């Protein structure tokens, strides 16, 4: 195994930056008086409901647009017989955020809910809240696994380091700054990570376009070059499956 030294240095610097921002955000939260005289757990979990529009917008976007989202979207566009027509996450997620903002955000904030399960538990009781917690927990576990798997796969390709080691190190760093800073640390590190994603994707574009395996995007969208056109299609027998996936998102 040959390690890409420049890439490894860049990754280490990125991890150090993320850890620094996470610790700084925790210190800033501690010294800003957020949560004083109130529920400390609420301050940790929802940032005292005082994140701000800029950081809140970034952390909301970063929550959706992570490694699993980008890798998964690219994978479905690339898969033969699927293509862009089956890459539903960008549109489904965007609409879900619009609907959540229009119908759910204001009443949930005004009633002081901390999690999405709170209103169900309030109406149907603690047993139902406990039952609903199980699928919610499983979803978070699988989502976290997808994010870490995407990160590990990316690092193993770019830097050529062991995927298991990269996943473990990344998870430990994320757990550390989350434990000490709560949502504030997560929100501020999300700003840094989203900026790095945006910059990194644009930096990768010329390398992707100049690769010998890449053909004219206008041609490969409609004609078969190496495989089926990347625009894809929805077959009549798949209409209900497509709709079901879209409503889920």
UniProtKB/TrEMBL annotation:
Name of the protein: Chitinase 1
Gene3D superfamilies noted in UniProt: Sodium/glucose cotransporter
Transmembrane segments: 7-27, 85-105, 131-159, 165-184, 191-209
Gene behind the chain: CHT1_2
Organism placement in taxonomy: Eukaryota, Metazoa, Chordata, Craniata, Vertebrata
Subcellular location per the Swiss-Prot or TrEMBL entry: Membrane
InterPro entries in UniProt: Choline_transporter, Na/Glc_symporter_sf, Na/solute_symporter
Keywords: Glycoprotein, Ion transport, Membrane, Neurotransmitter biosynthesis, Sodium, Sodium transport, Symport, Transmembrane, Transmembrane helix, Transport
Coiled coil: none
Source organism superkingdom: Eukaryota
Native source organism of the sequence: Ataeniobius toweri
Bilayer topology: Multi-pass membrane protein
Keyword match Ion transport: yes
Similarity-based family: Belongs to the sodium:solute symporter (SSF) (TC 2.A.21) family.
Family matches, as Pfam families: SSF
């Amino acid at each position: 195994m040959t390690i890409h030294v420049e890439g490894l240095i860049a990754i280490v610097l990125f991890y150090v930056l993320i850890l620094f921002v996470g610790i700084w955000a925790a210190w800033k939260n501690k010294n800003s008086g957020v949560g004083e005289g109130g529920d400390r757990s609420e301050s940790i979990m929802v940032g005292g409901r005082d994140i701000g529009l800029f950081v809140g917008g970034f952390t909301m976007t970063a929550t959706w647009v992570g490694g699993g989202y980008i890798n998964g979207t690219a994978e479905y566009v690339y898969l033969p017989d699927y293509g862009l027509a089956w890459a539903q996450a960008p549109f489904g997620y965007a609409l879900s955020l619009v609907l959540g903002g229009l119908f759910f955000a204001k009443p949930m904030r005004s009633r002081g809910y901390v999690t999405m399960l709170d209103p169900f538990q309030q109406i149907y009781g603690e047993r139902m809240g406990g039952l609903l917690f199980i699928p919610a927990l499983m979803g978070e576990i699988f989502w976290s696994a997808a994010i870490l798997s995407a990160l590990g796969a990316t690092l193993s390709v770019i830097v050529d380091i062991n995927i298991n080691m990269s996943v473990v190190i990344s998870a430990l760093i994320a757990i550390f700054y989350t434990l000490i800073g709560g949502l504030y640390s997560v929100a501020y590190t999300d700003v840094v990570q989203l900026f790095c994603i945006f910059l990194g994707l644009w930096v990768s574009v010329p390398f992707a376009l100049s690769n010998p395996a890449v053909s004219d995007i206008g041609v490969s969208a409609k004609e078969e070059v190496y495989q089926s056109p990347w625009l894809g299609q929805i077959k009549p027998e798949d209409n209900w499956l497509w709709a079901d996936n879209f409503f889920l998102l």
